[in-house]
Design goal:
34% of the residues lie in helices and 2% in strands. It is an all-alpha fold. The termini are far apart. Bound molecules: heme C (10 copies). The site of one heme C has 16 residues, from helix 12. Residues 248-250, 254, 258-259, 276, 279-280, 282-284, 295-297, 309-310, 313, 316, 323-325 line the site of one heme C (HEC).
Amino acid sequence: MMSNSRASRAVLFAVLYLFVSASALARVGHQIADKSGQSGSAQAASAPATSAPSAEASKYVGAETCKTCHEEIYNAWEKTPHWKTTLNIKGGPSKQGCEGCHGPGADHVAGGGDKTKIFVFEGKSRQETSARCLSCHGEAHEQSHFAESAHSSSDVGCLDCHSPHHAKEKEFLLVQEQPQLCYGCHTSAKADFAKPYHHRVNEGLVQCNDCHNPHGTGTVRQLRSLPSGDAVCYKCHVDKQGPFVYEHVPVKTEGCTSCHSPHGSTNPKLLNVMPVNMLCLQCHTFSTQLTAGGPIGPAHNQSAKYQACTMCHTQIHGSNFSDVFFK
Ligand code: HEC
Ligand code: HEC
Ligand code: HEC
Ligand code: HEC
Ligand code: HEC
Ligand code: HEC
Ligand code: HEC
Ligand code: HEC
Ligand code: HEC
Ligand code: HEC
């Protein structure tokens, strides 16, 4: 991994050491001259990061220094989106480059690569590693619910799905392609999507990510919702959203899953229950009396003619013309 010979490394080391101490000296002078002392952020914004006037900053050496010994890792890393952090002058050295994740590296370098003097991810708890990532990503819209997600509470961390150095996928630094990544842990979802009728996730047309946010959401089952707060299903099935003059109540109150299994089903319309009359009769009863909690009707009997309910009640998601959803 390290191409330098022992001797050249020693030389390099001496140079680095001189550089680090010289800049530390310069910084002390700078701090004395700067009466306000604490105005770190204003300074950091205008001056190069290495001369930020805090003692903390002197613990950072910058990614170029890491490169001198970890060249292979650096070269691969440079091609990932995290390279952009080196340009984050405003964030300061603690948000830049290798040290944005591994923490300050000066002691590690001074110790000739002492592993105990730098943050090593291997062997750390998921809570601790995820917290590192969240120090930058925690405010982002997509990741902001991670702490209260089903994943986080079940001890699934960022590194179960992502790897900054050893990603298998070009996009999003994923350790495995989708949906296999998810199926590895979610075998029942895998079985559902293998049913004859399913959203075409395996075929690449729809993604788990279209309906769920693996980083968690404010709602149950890590489901996404539209900005309006409505169910995610309307994103693609706009025609079901209405509003309708005559709403079929459960569509709005209990949601799509009161009738559909969105992952997959043996029913072509992804219904939870077959045949369709059995689905309707889970809620409806043959009566003109209002039963406890249930809707009225149908008054018609269950002769064969009436069993295919949606033959007549075609606009089952709601209608603007018919209070019994005929058209
Ligand atoms: C986005 C956070 C992040 C950044 C930035 C980062 N690392 Fe890492 N590093 C990790 C994680 C996480 C691991 C554990 C292995 C993995 O999951 O890829 C790791 C592992 C390592 C290892 C152990 C060996 C290995 O290949 O796993 C070395 C050495 C290392 N990083 C050096 C560096 C250097 C040098 C840089 C800058 C060029 C850097 N890292 C930038 C997060 C980061
Ligand atoms: C003077 C050379 C040198 C420099 C500069 C250097 N390292 Fe290292 N680093 C090493 C050596 C040597 C090891 C130990 C490898 C081992 O013991 O397997 C090491 C180990 C590591 C490890 C642990 C790898 C593991 O196997 O778990 C990480 C993480 C790491 N370095 C990150 C960094 C980062 C980040 C920087 C820049 C801030 C940096 N290193 C700069 C020489 C260096
Ligand atoms: C259960 C798996 C999983 C976990 C755990 C996970 N991610 Fe992700 N992450 C993904 C997938 C899948 C994508 C790609 C989404 C897509 O296809 O649009 C992604 C995308 C991202 C992206 C880029 C796109 C975006 O939407 O922001 C970032 C940044 C990210 N994840 C950070 C994190 C961080 C930080 C953590 C830990 C706090 C984390 N992820 C935990 C699966 C996961
Ligand atoms: C120092 C801040 C910082 C830390 C710490 C950090 N990231 Fe990032 N991450 C970024 C930036 C900046 C981007 C690029 C965003 C962009 O392209 O707009 C990024 C991008 C990503 C992406 C998207 C990659 C893509 O292909 O679009 C993923 C995934 C990701 N980070 C995961 C992680 C994980 C996992 C960790 C913890 C091991 C982590 N990050 C730690 C700053 C950070
Ligand atoms: C490392 C294992 C692992 C991976 C990989 C993983 N999950 Fe999970 N996931 C879990 C665990 C554990 C839970 C919590 C227990 C449960 O509900 O199954 C969970 C919960 C969930 C939930 C919430 C379920 C509920 O009942 O609230 C959803 C949705 C989910 N995962 C989707 C995904 C998606 C999408 C992916 C792929 C991007 C993914 N998971 C990858 C382990 C994983
Ligand atoms: C078309 C939207 C949609 C897609 C695509 C989707 N899900 Fe779901 N998923 C849902 C809904 C809605 C629920 C809630 C079902 C309920 O509460 O009855 C759910 C529930 C879950 C649950 C909770 C347990 C369960 O089975 O009810 C897990 C885990 C899960 N999904 C994982 C995944 C994974 C993994 C993928 C991709 C392989 C995926 N989902 C794709 C909509 C979707
Ligand atoms: C990302 C877009 C997308 C989202 C989000 C989505 N669907 Fe779909 N849905 C489709 C597509 C595309 C089809 C067409 C089926 C096919 O050919 O694969 C479909 C088909 C269906 C079907 C079967 C219709 C038929 O005639 O084949 C039902 C029922 C359905 N979706 C319900 C839902 C429910 C319920 C949700 C929310 C949990 C949802 N969909 C979310 C894209 C989506
Ligand atoms: C009260 C039960 C019920 C609810 C709630 C429900 N559906 Fe349906 N849906 C059905 C039935 C029954 C069919 C089959 C109609 C047929 O066979 O003509 C169907 C068919 C569909 C179809 C395919 C045929 C078409 O009309 O495009 C889609 C897509 C669909 N539903 C999406 C949704 C979405 C999205 C929601 C939530 C907004 C939802 N459904 C809520 C009962 C329901
Ligand atoms: C999850 C429970 C549920 C399911 C399943 C369900 N419905 Fe309903 N339905 C309701 C409720 C609640 C009402 C509103 C009743 C009221 O306002 O008195 C309603 C109203 C109706 C109405 C209008 C009745 C009126 O008097 O205005 C018709 C027609 C209807 N449903 C047909 C069906 C058919 C056909 C199916 C099967 C495809 C079905 N429903 C499945 C709960 C359900
Ligand atoms: C052959 C056509 C047809 C079929 C099939 C059919 N219905 Fe109806 N349904 C009607 C008619 C006609 C009405 C009365 C409409 C009116 O009052 O204007 C009605 C009314 C209803 C009502 C409103 C309450 C009432 O009785 O006035 C409900 C609820 C209902 N049907 C549910 C169902 C269910 C559930 C099924 C399947 C088991 C079903 N229907 C099958 C034609 C049909």
